[in-house]
Amino acid sequence: MDVRGLRVVRGGQTVLHAIDAQVPTGSVTGLLGPSGCGKTTLLRSIVGVQRVAGGEVQVLGMPAGSAALRDRIGYVTQAPSVYTDLSVMENLRYFAAVLGAPREDPERVVAAVGLEGKEGAQVERLSGGQRARVSLAAALLGTPKVLVLDEPTVGLDPVLRAELWGLFHRLAGGDDPVTLLISSHVMDEASRCTRLLLMREGRILASDTPEALLAQTGADDIEGAFLSLVGAAS
Ligand SMILES: Nc1ncnc2c1ncn2[C@@H]1O[C@H](COP(=O)(O)OP(=O)(O)OP(=O)(O)O)[C@@H](O)[C@H]1O
């Protein structure tokens, strides 16, 4: 993914100020920054659903929003995007049909997110974490090359969070690597990423590996590195 000079205006305000950002293929890149800094807007621009005021966004070598990218990008929004009155499997079969995914794909993705045994459960009756995993399972249908996940671990317990990060790394490290871009406002998730994009007030503060950011700032953790970079930029 390659973002150059991206400018977005929402509600009359510039929310992305001509930003540049690269997400290497096969990386697990964390997009970290405080609430309201523009993370969702950047993700929406990459998925191709955000009206942009300027700049360019390329995904897998194609302009964001290209029809050819539709079944190659999985996008999980913050709000669950599955039908709550349908069962887990009904949702997955429906989305698989829309995408033209292989017939056995719903079973594969249920196993990938650890929802075996819940196939027949109505989504309405699932816990928040289970619902989040149904949305993630839907995004894994059709074996996308890029996964864009907006705060996928919010509200999950630590065990489930660790399991999901394990899944993200398995997807990125497989024979057919997936590139993952994952937003979070929880800085302690930074250490789970292979690369970081630190964002503040519509600008990218830094783009590097967690280790390099710690070395560069001399901070003990990414929160400290973030504060040091904010200090240096102002
Ligand atoms: N539909 C909208 N209309 C106008 N302004 C919006 C809209 N959605 C978001 N904004 C503004 O754009 C800015 C960036 O919002 P965005 O949702 O991208 O932030 P975020 O970093 O994802 O926040 P959070 O972590 O709280 O989800 C904010 O100042 C917000 O008020």
TrEMBL record:
InterPro entries registered for this protein in UniProt: AAA+_ATPase (IPR003593), ABC_transporter-like_ATP-bd (IPR003439), ABC_transporter-like_CS (IPR017871), P-loop_NTPase (IPR027417)
Entries under Gene3D superfamilies matching the protein: P-loop containing nucleotide triphosphate hydrolases
CDD domains: ABC_DR_subfamily_A
Pfam families recorded: ABC_tran
Highest taxon in the source lineage: Bacteria
Keyword annotations: ATP-binding, Nucleotide-binding
An example Gene Ontology molecular-function term: ATP binding
Domain ABC transporter: 1-226
Record-given protein name: ABC transporter ATP-binding protein
Source organism of this protein record: Catenulispora yoronensis
Species lineage: Bacteria, Bacillati, Actinomycetota, Actinomycetes, Catenulisporales
